[in-house]
Structures are given as C-alpha cells and as structure tokens.
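Discussion board: Methods & Data

I've been asked by a reviewer to show the raw model output for two of the constructs in my manuscript, not just the figures. I'm not sure how much to include, so I'm pasting the format here to get opinions. Each protein appears as its amino acid sequence followed by a line of discrete structure tokens. Is this the kind of thing reviewers expect to see in a supplement, or should I convert it first? Here is construct A:
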Amino acid sequence: MSAAVSQLDKELRERIEEPASDEAEREARLPPADATAQMRIKVPAQRNAKLRTVYEEPELTVIVSEVLQAITSHRESGKPLTLEAGIVRVADALDIEEGRSRIPFERGRVSIHSISAAAIDEVVISEGTERAVSVEIKMNNSAGLYQVDELLKAKLHGSGLEPYVEVVARIENEAEKSLVTLYRLE
C-alpha cells in the first residue's frame, strides 16, 4: 500500500470515528417532507410561475429537480437517475432524421455528422416484438450507421432503457444514395 493511500485511509478512519455534528444528526432524522422542504432549489419566481399554479412545496422542488436532472442527463456525460430522464436522453438521440442536417449540409459543411444525418430518412418507434419498444431507422446510405452506432448507442447505454428497447437500422433502397461525390481534406 502506498504512503498516500495509507495516509488517506488514516484520515478517513479518523473522520468516521468523529461524532456527527448536532446539525447532521437533526437532518438525518427529518421526515421526508421536511427534508425536501429544506432542499428547495432557488429558481427565480418568474421562471416557475406556471408551475406554482399547479404544484406547491415540496412537490414543486421535486418536479423542478427532476426536470433539471433530465436536461443535464441528455448530454453525453449525463447520468440519468430516473426512467423519465433516460427517456429524454434517448429521445434526443432519436432526433436524427434527414431534416436535422439539411441546413449545414446545404451550406457545404460536409462532416461525418452532416453526412450521416443526411443518410437517415425516417425513425419509426413502435411496439416491439422482442422488447417493449422497437426503434426502426430507415437509411438511404450506410453512412447513417454513424448516427446509430456512435450517437444513439452511446445515449441508450446508461439510460436505464436498454432492456426495453430494440434498435434496427436498414437501408431501404437497393442502391445507396450518393451523398458526396468528392471530399477533400482541408
């Protein structure tokens, strides 16, 4: 064991053996409603005025917390803590149909992102046969596999939805659509 780890272990043991503060003891014994009431997220009143007409504390704090967590969870490094946050994360990744790349692609911004997005014609979500939800991705070019294998797969992983979603990607036409005739590395 290294000296640094040994020192850390000693410090942790000492902290564990210290008695908890009166405040920590009191907070640990709070009923859930009181604990939630003390955890209020300070969102400016004008930002949650509509929510305040529907929810009161402590429910308001729970709703705001879960919405904020779902928003941060949709990012690549996000870690969904609820099934709803996982759904937001995967839904963001399923926004991959051709229209998404139309503007950058038409402006000449050729990248794997614009090419692969242009290769996705349609995303169909339906009841699954092997799992609860089926996601079928219809492509006009195999470049769309980047969207599926790199982006969707990363968002699905860790979402909590993995056991419930089956994903199938297929090229709908016999000949692949030519997306770029020539590409020069600049």
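Construct B, same format:
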Amino acid sequence: MTVLNILLVNDDGYQADGIRVMFDALVAVGHNVTLVAPKGPQSGQGTRISIDALGQATEVVEFAPGQWFVDATPVTTTQAGLDFILGGVEPDLVISGINEGENVGASIAISSGTVSAATTATRAGIPAIAVSAGTLRDPQTFAIDEEALADAYEFSAEFVVDLVAELIDRQGDNPKLLPDGVGLNVNIPLWWTTLKALPSRFWMKRALLSFLWVT
C-alpha cells in the first residue's frame, strides 16, 4: 500500500466527532496524518480569514502528537497547517471534514468553511477533498438524530478511505493524485442508510463515486 502524508482539517473544530472519525480511519489504514483544526466551531465562515489577528500572536497548540488546533478561521487554520506546522513541506493530500451536514449548491465555494479549507490547498497546487455527511433531523424540533449522524460519519470515513485508494490506483506516473487546481467535494446523502441492509456495499460505493466526483 502507498502511504500518503495527509493534512486533515475542518470547520467544526478540533473536538468535532467528524474529524476524529476521519482521523482514526486514515491512520488505521497506515497513512501519516497531521490534524490541524480550528479551536472552536467555525461553520459557515467560508473564505473569511482571521484579519482581526493580523500582526498579533495566534494560539497554535499541539494537544496530542501530530494533532493541533489553531484559534482562527478554517482558511487561516489550513494555511497555518501548510506554512507553519508542516513547515512548508507539501502534503500529498489535504482532506477537509467530515462536516456535519451536506455542502451542496452554487454558493458553497464562498460560504462553506469545509470547502474553503480544501480550496486553500488546491490554490497552492495541493490535491484536496472536502467531505460532508448528510444529517437526519426531527421534522418537529429540527434536532439532529445523533445515532444516525454517528453512523453517517463511519460510512463517510470508509468511503473516503476507499476513494483515496482509488485515486492512488489511478495515479499512474502522475506526480500528484489530482491535476493542479482540482479538488473533490464529496457529499454522502441522507439515503446512504439504505445501504446498511446490503451484504456488501463495495459495488454501491463504486456507483457513488461516479457522481460524487466533482472537479
């Protein structure tokens, strides 16, 4: 297996369940993962940078080996990961997520912190994947079904691990996993739960990949 150096970021903060599940899944298959996430929730911050902190010290903490939080927006946090924490050494891949809730529609390029963190990498010529999981909500209270969300995170992480393996298999002699300036925005839809009843989900994952591949 080809081992990648991966920078893992998000917009929900370093304590969010989604990024923890994604981190564990990538490490479990042998990838070298550096986690760099905002100190707190930064959903919806989009392309905003921490301009109010320009010229001032920014809190950057390694809370566990190879795992950091930055008191900044997702874009600034990702930039801190690339320039400061990794010391300018480019990772093979940046993954942003797993986000709580899907990121679809024409406005996500500027409104989604998850997608904006990923595009920070693609603008630097680094392949990137943004990944988001659909959430089930109570129609009356709009409360999230936490059990379903936990299952969605597990499925999303498994899907992304397989997607990364697919990219590696398709890389051939190309120096990078994706062409310059190209990133993938992966959204696991609400109906993924119907796959749990199948004895094998591999063929369905291949089908999902065919329309979740976004350039």
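Answer (T.O., handling editor elsewhere):
This is acceptable in a supplement if you add a one-line summary per construct. For B, something like: The mean pLDDT is 82.
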